[in-house]
Amino acid sequence: MSQFPDAHFLTSANHVSQLVADEGAEIAFAGRSNAGKSSAINTLVNRRQFARTSKTPGRTQLINFFALAPTKRLVDLPGYGFARVAPKVQQHWQSLMEAYFSDRRSLAGVFLIVDIRRGIGDFDEQMISFAEALQIPVHALLTKSDKLKRGAAATALLQARKVLAGRGTAQLFSSLQRSGVEEAVDQLIDMLNPDAAA
Ligand code: GDP
């Protein structure tokens, strides 16, 4: 069963002028291309093809907005870290991210999607810095945890927590095995409701 039965795609933005009205609360999903972000979103919303829009050619470099519930949104940020991306595309990504993170009152938290085998990288660090500047929480999903044996996964989790060093939380996650889903959904709901009593 989905915690977000009414979830649906809202719109895509290629420029700050196209962002959804800055009201309510939203959580941004950021991650290196191929980290498993779309799969994680589909798993959390419990709909097989939910983040399909974000994979549509021409939309991969856009900010894609989804409604999870009235006034609650999930924001799929464009993936980063392509090895050979044109400088123009890279610059556009950089300026779009800076514009989005510079002034977004409804942004209540960041889900950082990290391939467990790669760990937290430079672009991820940039996302963490954006979140720190806005004083919003970061939660890292170490995806594809099924690819590592239990001990290695535990080590990777410790390492990620060390790198985060109090700047965020982290957990193991696998879309393939549907593991870590409840913990992640709870975290997502908590971030979307920052004023709710703990
Ligand atoms: P995105 O580019 O970050 O949106 O990544 P995708 O969700 O498209 O996933 C990239 C690749 O990793 C695809 O081939 C997925 O099937 C695979 N993948 C995603 N999540 C998992 C997972 O939890 N376990 C495994 N083994 N593969 C995964």
Large-scale geometry: globular
Distance between the termini: 24 Å
| Beta-strand residue fraction | 15-25%
From the alpha carbons, calculate the radius of gyration and give it in angstroms: 16 Å
Mean pLDDT: 94
Q: In terms of structural class, how would the helical and strand content be classed?
A: alpha/beta
Order of helices and strands: EEHEEHEHEHEH
- How is the quaternary structure best described? single chain
**Share in helix:** 25-40%
How many individual helices? 5
The strand count comes to 7
Q: What is this entry, summarized?
A:
This protein is α/β, with parallel strands linked by helices. The chain is built from five helices and seven strands, in the order E-E-H-E-E-H-E-H-E-H-E-H. Residues 31, 33-39, 79, 143-144, 146-147, 174-176 line the site of guanosine-5'-diphosphate (GDP).
Write up this protein.
This protein is of the alpha/beta class and 198 residues long. The protein is built from five helices and seven strands, in the order ββαββαβαβαβα. The protein has a seven-stranded mixed sheet with strand order 1-3-4-2-5-6-7, sandwiched between helices. The chain is globular. The model has no long low-confidence stretch (mean pLDDT 94). Guanosine-5'-diphosphate is lined by residues 31, 33-39, 79, 143-144, 146-147, 174-176.
